[in-house]
């Protein structure tokens, strides 16, 4: 399977999120976070209106790091599942991105992203 190396897994810190632009479109199309020790990756698209969630670079989480926020209309999502628990898209979910760890790197299946793939490698 061809993988795309996103970042080192230890760069994803508990209670924080980081946006990434693997499709090189000049905006972060996915974001990764660590919650309860587990890394989760979601598409940066709110189920309410298909807009980006963050209010500025890497600001996807509530102040206490316990929830994912959409800053457009205040929707709140569970980090573990992406389920909306408050706001206009209540009950809907963020779209999870599949990944695996390889040699300390977070690697995405390239079928989930569009080229260019500057760091693609065989896995
Ligand atoms: S666009 Fe996210 S809550 Fe409205």
TrEMBL record:
**Does this UniProt record's set of keywords contain GTP-binding?**
no
Give all residue intervals belonging to the Rieske domain: 4-108
Claim: Acyltransferase is one of the keywords in the record:
no
Recorded GO MF terms = 2 iron, 2 sulfur cluster binding; metal ion binding
InterPro entries assigned: Rieske_2Fe-2S (IPR017941), Rieske_2Fe-2S_sf (IPR036922)
Which terms are listed as keywords in the entry?
A: 2Fe-2S, Iron, Iron-sulfur, Metal-binding
Which PROSITE patterns does this entry report, sorted A to Z? RIESKE (PS51296)
| Pfam families cross-referenced by the UniProt entry | Rieske (PF00355)
The record's listing under PANTHER family reads: PTHR40261, RIESKE DOMAIN-CONTAINING PROTEIN
The entry's protein name is: Rieske domain-containing protein
């Amino acid at each position: 399977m061809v993988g795309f190396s996103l970042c080192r897994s230890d760069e994803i810190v508990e209670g924080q999120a980081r946006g990434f632009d693997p499709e090189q479109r000049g905006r972060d199309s996915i974001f990764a976070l660590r919650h309860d020790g587990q890394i989760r990756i979601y598409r940066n698209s709110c189920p309410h209106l298909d807009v980006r969630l963050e209010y500025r670079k890497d600001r996807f989480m509530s102040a206490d790091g316990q929830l994912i926020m959409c800053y457009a209309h205040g929707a709140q999502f569970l980090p573990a599942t992406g389920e909306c628990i408050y706001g206009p898209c209540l009950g809907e979910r963020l779209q999870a991105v599949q990944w695996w760890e390889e040699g300390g790197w977070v690697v995405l299946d390239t079928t989930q992203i569009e080229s260019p793939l500057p760091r693609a490698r065989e896995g």
